[in-house]
Amino acid sequence: MKILSLEFENLxxxxxxWKLDFTKSPFAENGLFAITGPTGAGKTTILDAMCLAxxxxxxxxxxxxxxxxxxxxxxxxxxxxxIEFEVKGKTYRSNFHHKRARGKHDGALQTPTCELADAxxxxxxxxxLTKKIKRVETVxxxxxxxxxxxxxxxQGEFAAFLNAxxxxxxxxxxxxxGTEVYSLISERIYDHFKSSEESLNHLKAxxxxxxxxxxxxxxxxxxxxxxxxxxxxVLSLQLVEWNAHLSWWKDVTKTDLxxxxxxxxxxxxxxxxxxxxxxxxxxxxxxxxxxxxxxxKDVQRSDQDVQxxxxxxxxxxxxxxxxxxxxxxxxxKLKTQSALVEQIKQEQQDxxxxxxxxxxxxxQISVLKDKQVTxxxxxxxxxxxxxxxxxxxxxxxxxxxxxxxxxxIHAQYLETHQADKQLxxxxxxxxFKVDQVRALETQHTELLSSVQSANKALETxxxxxxxxxxLKLTQDKALAERVAVENDAKLKWDTLQQQNSERxxxxxxxxxxxxxxxxxxxxxxxxxxxxxxxRIAVKEAELSNHIxxxxxxxxxxxxxxxxxxxxxxxxxxxxxxxxQEGELAKYRAALQPGMDCPLCGSANHAIEQxxxxxxxxxxxxxxxxxxAVIEKEGTEHRxxxxxxxxxxxxxxxxxxxxxxxxxQAQLNWANxxxxxxxxxxxFVSQGGLLDVKLPSIEALGDSETVSFFTESCExxxxxxxHQLRAVIDAKNVYLDAEKQRTTASIMAxxxxxxxELSEQRxxxxxxxxxxxxxQAEKCSQSKALQWTELKESIAxxxxxxxxxxxxxxxxxxxxEASDLWQATKLQHDDLDKQLISKRAELTALxxxxxxxxxxxxxxxxEVESLTKELASITESRKQLFGDNDVQSTIQAxxxxxxxxxxxxxxxxTEFNGCEREHLKEQTKHASYTEELATKQQAQVEMKQLWxxxxxxxxxxxxxxxxxxxxxxxxxAQLRSLKKTLDEAIVSAQARLNSAKANRxxxxxxxxxxxxxxxxQSEVEQATVEYQNKRQSHASQIGxxxxxxxxxxxxxxxxQDLFKLIExxxxxxxDISRLNSLIGSRNGxxxxxxxxxxxxxxxxxxxxxxxxxxxxxxxxxxxxxDGLELQVLDTWQGDVMRDTKTLSGGESFLVSLALALALSDxxxxxxxxxxxxxxxxxxxxxxxxxxxxxxxxDNLNAxxxxxxxxxxVEALKERVPVQLKVTKHSGxxxxxxxxxxRVTA
Length: 1240
What we know:
Blueprint: E1 2-11, E2 14-21, E3 32-36, H1 43-55, E4 78-87, E5 90-99, E6 113-118, E7 124-126, H2 129-140, H3 144-150, E8 152-153, H4 160-163, H5 166-177, H6 180-208, H7 215-275, H8 277-285, H9 287-416, H10 423-499, H11 502-590, H12 612-685, H13 703-795, H14 807-881, H15 886-951, H16 958-964, H17 968-1003, H18 1008-1011, H19 1016-1078, H20 1084-1109, E9 1113-1117, E10 1125-1129, E11 1135-1138, H21 1144-1162, E12 1170-1174, H22 1182-1197, E13 1201-1205, H23 1209-1214, E14 1218-1223, E15 1230-1232
Parallel strand pairs: 3-13, 3-14, 8-12, 12-13
Antiparallel strand pairs: 1-2, 1-4, 4-5, 5-6, 6-7, 9-10, 10-11, 14-15
Helix pairs in contact: 5-20, 6-19, 6-20, 7-11, 7-13, 7-17, 7-19, 9-14, 9-15, 10-13, 10-14, 11-12, 11-13, 12-17, 20-21
């Protein structure tokens, strides 16, 4: 990954927009450059911008979101960062943009936006915040942590890995290199181990918890089931006969009840007709009154219309008089308002002539007042400015005097303490020397401690050697015992093999198991054969019963057809009679009093309708109801016949299928016996022998023969299995003994290896202890030499050197003196600048005061002139118009005129309305007069018609007519009652006839005489008894079959279960071995191993970097301390030093090597072509600084672009290309050189 350019805006103290293009001059010609500037100027902000553009965070700020952004420059409304980079020859552009509302500095923070794009094609790759970070990680191969450890080495994190303890170093390695996957692998293996162990234990427990039936129990269950099935078939036949008997009794009882109910219903219907006869007579009497009812209502309606019209005419006459009075009053009011409007118009014209003279005067007064106010404000402002400027003059004069006094004091101090000026140059070098002396002193103390620890370790190792020798003897003895046990087990196994070989037993077992599996088949075939023969008997009985029922229904339906034809013929005859009677009714209706009959010629017979027609209609309705009942019963019989036919056909089909099952069972029986015979022949031909005889072909249906064969197979199979288990157990004992002997041999060899290793470690510890003693002596000599050189260096400056124990206080005193002198010098220079500036300000104030005095005098003269002119014009206007306001006066007059005009319009509207109402009422009055005359004439005519109709009716007076008239609801109710009573009689008679016919058919049944001798209660009791017996037999058969099937499944499943246990045991052995190597609950076993390998690789890469930096040091991993590091000092006889004993410069060199090595280590996915170091280099002396810079030059020569952040002067001199960041005092902002500023 190579950084090509960086552009950012308003980040921390770097306000404004800036862009650094690393592909152009001066960066293109010099791959090594320095970012310089004072502390707090914003050098690290440049690196923050890179992180922000890529990962939306910085090393110092973990979160930048909608609600918080501490990176944005104070007082700005937005910040921005964009970076262009190259990965594997392809260029990308990534940015981050955060704004406040409306772009204001005090606006609320908005949701950030971002973008990742292909810089070559400008294609947008991602714009969502979270997804964009993941896409950057995918493209670069670096997440934020790896980026800050490989490309950008953050400030304060430079030596984090070197100074970390073992646990922290493990976390850093895991974070940087992704070795957390090894922890997950270790945890998964441990979880797999526990899961496999649990599954194995579960299968073993399951195998131990299964119980099987004995052969005696199985045979007993099969015999009981066969007996119950035979009894079940007999019970089914008997139950069919009892059900038919019970059905006949139920039909008889139902028919008898129907006859009794029919007779009761018929009598009830006839009684109801008698009880309601008075109401029916009243209905007949009301029919003539119903015919006159419409004409009577018309007469009443005519009388009501005349009364309503008379009332309307009288009301209209009163309203017409009221409208005349209202019209006269409205006319007088209209004349008065018209005269008032003319008077106001004349007043308005007189007022307008005066206002034309006043308006010019008002305009002049307004202009003069505005000028007067402006002039007075100007005078007041000038006076205020003069007061303020004189106050500033006084304050500034006092400040100049104060600054002169302070400048004099600082100059005297600098002159007096001129010697403190040189301390800043030497204090750093002396402090570095003191750090070296103390580091050597600490190292010497640690070395002495290490010698003591080494002596203790030596004693411990001697004890371990003795323990290892004793353990070796114990393991040799255990091995000899295991060898003897193995030989005994081998002998026992060989003896059993000679009696009955495992192969022969397995062959016998296979044959017997094959037979046992097929014995179940024979049992199933035999059971199926018996069940099929029983089903045939049951189905034949059911078929006979259904055929009998079908014949019975057919006979009943033929009787119903005959009755239907008779009723239909009778109904057709009644319909013809009713039609004839209807034709005669037409001729009767045409008869007139005094005229001859057109049919018979007689002039004396009555006109009333014949009473026979009512009887005919009632008889027709009864015949229709009876015919409907017969149709319903016929339909029911047809439906029952239709439902029985499929049942009969189904039983026949089932009989055919059952017979086919019998034949198939016979065929399967023969085939199965042939298979068993063939397998047995092959077994005997190979030398096998069994004492079991196969059943014959004729044994089908004989359950005892099948059971005997099954028991024989099972008995001999158990004997073979017993012998086979004995052989297998002996074999397993031998294999376990062999395994234990092998384990004991391994333990003996391991004890021998441990003994040799302990003796070798004892030798190594002896050598190492002596080396540490020599190293401690060398360290003591180096310390004395370094202290002597330091005292000589201090003495050269004519300063007395303190003792080592007082050196810190002495350094503090000298550092305070040096800092005070430098601070005083800066303050003195600043006071000089202030004095020059304030004197220039005082001169400018004097000039400004003189100018203000002249302006104030001119402004006062202008105010006096405007005041005189305004008083003259105001007096003229008062004489002409007083103090009245022109606009208010005009408005008042307009309002007066408007009110008068409005009142006039209102009066005109009122008059028009009165006139319209008067005309409308006149029209209504004339209309009511004409309508009353018309309705009175209609009333007279309607009365005449009613009198004529009443005279020709059976009623003598209106009262007689009204008493005969019924209301509509009562009429409808009586008609409905008549229809209901007639239908009830017809329906009851039809049901009674049908019930009597059914009873006659039941008495004619072929078994009626026999069945009638047994009471229905006894038949019902017998039917329930046989049903319970059959249900009980079915439950027992089902329970026995379920037990047998469960036992068969258990036997089959147990064989499969042993296979599962064997497979699970193999899997458990494998995962158990893997778990013992790298598995652990928290994943630390495999993780630590992987981290150790990673650390070895890191040390190797770091030593390659150290060879470039300085050949004196070499990093090594402590062999017995996990992830601890130590340094080999080749200049001190290859002495091993703890990393904590390194001086500041030495720590920097080693940390830099580790940082570069980490950069190489974490960049396994991406080539790192850019490197930024955010480190001060302040702890390095000139020689070490040269070494570090030479190393950076070498890295630059290899093609890397390197940027270094520092304020060390020597580094600035060595690096020609510098990116300077300038800090503005007191403003809180910084800036870079103008060539990097982006202008709009």
